[in-house]
Amino acid sequence: MLKLEPRPQASRFWSYSSPLLALAVTVIIGVILFAALGKDPVKGLQVFFWEPIKSPYALGELMVKATPLLIIALGLAVCFRSNVWNIGAEGQFVIGAVVAGGVALLAGKETGRWIVAAIILAGVAGGMAWAAITALLRDRFNANEILVSLMLVYVADLVLSFLVYGPWKDPAGYNFPQTKTFEAITQIPRLMQGSRVSIGLLIALLGVGALWIFLFRTRAGFAQQVGGLAPAAARYAGFSSRKALWVALLTSGGAAGLAGALEVAGPIGQLTPYVPAGYGFAAIIVAFVGRLHPVGMVFSAILMSMFYIGGELAQSRLGLPKSLTGVFQGLLLFTLLACDTLIAYRIKFKLPSSGNRPRPRGPALATAVQEGGK
Amino acid sequence: MNIPTSPHAPPRLQLANITKSYPAVVANSDVSLSVEPGVAHAILGENGAGKSTLMKIIYGSVKPDEGTVHFNGKPVHIRNPQEARALGISMVFQHFSLFDTLTVAENVWLGLEKSLSLPEVTQRITAKAGAYGLDIDPMRPVHTLSVGEMQRVEIIRALLTDPKLLILDEPTSVLTPQAVEKLFVVLKQLVSEGCSILYISHKLHEIRELCTACTVLRGGVVTGVCNPQQETNASLSCLMIGAEPPQLEHHQVKTGKTVLRVQSLDLPRGDQFGVDLEGISLEVRAGEVVGIAGVSGNGQKELLYALSGEDTRAAAPMIQVFDKKVGKFGPGRRRALGVHFVPEERLGRGAVPTLGLAHNLMLTRKNAIGKSGWINVKALEAQAQDIIRRFNVKAGGPNSAAKSLSGGNLQKFIVGREIDANPKLLIISQPTWGVDVGASAQIRGEILKLRDAGCAVLVVSEELDELFEISDRLHVIAKGRLSPSMDRAQATVTKIGEWMSGLWESPDGGEPVLRQAQDDRASDTQADSVRTVLASGAQHA
To answer: Which pTM does this prediction carry?
Structure first.
């Protein structure tokens, strides 16, 4: 018989190993899934875990997708660490893309390189403004930020649709719902020839360093997190919960908006109804699989990016639906949540007792210390 | 151990060689215990001595690793509290399990077998209450009851099962001295009717008054079996802690100027079950310890929130520090004035459970934080290490998580953190709640040292012994109002007890006599004429 026993102390080992175990379980379920769909599991796994890293070009594509995921997740980590549940990064991403796209549309033939900076700042501002709605409603009316931020995603999508079906539609676009292609000058600078990797990757990596310093080396970052770990202690210390709320939402909104700007002025190059690619939601998984740690999220962003690319390849190579990406993302989050149980609990195997006098010895010493400490 | 055979009735409860280990501690080691019918039997021991674990074993909520339990001479294996109740064992816990929004009768009904209807239960409550002189109205909602009344509900709930053995865990920690007397009348009546009582406490005078048998535990081991009525406090505490508690030096210190002045503080309750503060006035001067006694839930929590700055709803002039109106200041700004506060809740308020001790310093200290808010990790760890050494905190190191420390050690660290800041005013709530005797004495000693150095100290505590030991003046808080101050030399347990019920009004007008709190500066001369040391409550009670 299996039994869960609380650990006296959270296991450090499992807090690092749980994501790996979750990945392993996800892969196993994936194998079963491929087999059930009548596909060769080895081929299926290859598509997801080997194809995306087998050539420099593929690696570049992996980075292209990992960059927005990482940037959004970095912002979300600030939120989640301070117990502010921003679920609407997707909406902030879209509005960031819209505002950045609006600036990009202003560019003409003789516009200078400065427009790129303007686009990026516009994206950040757009994302921040969208998140500020959530912050304001929570601050003033104590509205639930989970619901508000999530519902604002759909509003953001509708704003985008309104613009590309209406005022911003390209007159020369054969009535397709899209803006005109942005001028070449607005393109986010790429790092090298032959790859779509842009300076966005550098910005993301700078963000990793900046977040690490903020979280672990500044008093402001400490104060921000105390509110999430122990609200009463934050109040006792005099750390403002309102400030923490605004910092968290503006940071994550700005990060999501930044990612939106980098996408729309980078790989996409115009506004279309297909700008929302689910990065904002996937980044939630990235943040948690990466343990809300800046470095951990680098790895989880790459992993989630593999799922994106693998899903597309599975469609073209194996004839499987692209929604397989979502299935894998969901599987990973689910198994992670399940595996996280091991951080606070240990599994105990117990033989069904033969008599009515079970005499636990040895392993039974491993019961919660809380009960004995009194 | 061989089981002694009694010529008459077998013991009501007999434990033999009970052992229970947890990963980090052995809670009970080879504990044997025998409770005779119709005897009040005390379990004496410090926090962490293993009393609670032993009671949980008897009550079936914890299974022992080894050992046997006999009830009325028959071997039993109590697997859960239901089985315990079926045998005739009832328990009144230290922390009540009552629903605030339900009535007394509904609460009792919830805990009973479902065969009875609510009116039947109501009738039984009235009958039981009458038989034992427990005055309670079954139709009242629980949130309108005082803590003492809530305990009565718990006791009635226990009595309705007609127990043969009643276990009480620290029942007097929430009662006024008068309520304790009433409780003892009930308990003595139960004993005379043949019910056995297991009475868990660390208060020696209570045990000596009520119990005729006593088992002393220390570190999970039985260190003595005796009749407490034939022992002295000294011999009992020797059994309990292995040594006599150190006595405190109480010097006469000249008080300086007023550091904290609270003027007619009125504050409506913040939450539904809180307490409104009404016209609270008090002063604390440099170099004196002012104590606030009272049964918990009479406004202590609300007053402390207002004083610490966690609640800034008070008008600015109502709270003054060095004549500065700080009512609207948050905790950070008050701390900048030298006001430091040790809250009652250590984990979650005084410290972040999952963070290391060093990081927990940053809740109230800025020494290791450089310009532009940069954390100097080395300096932070050094500072934590310093406090750990100076205050004798048992911890793995400066990076041990706060929750990995025992309650007493964490309290030493938090008190140390605030004292190390050289406060001008230290406000400290329940300084030794749940802390063992050794650490308690150390914390009280540190408080007095701070006072001698000229700091103003305000102590809020439910332990009268403690307040008598360290305070220079005493107030009592009851129903959100504060009594006038009383010099410790004039204070008696009886008088404080009366005040705890809110009875300090002048007989005719009913107007609280708060004015005289302002000017009793001269009366400190007799302050050390009464030296009240630990465990001397017997003289007071």
So the answer is: 0.76
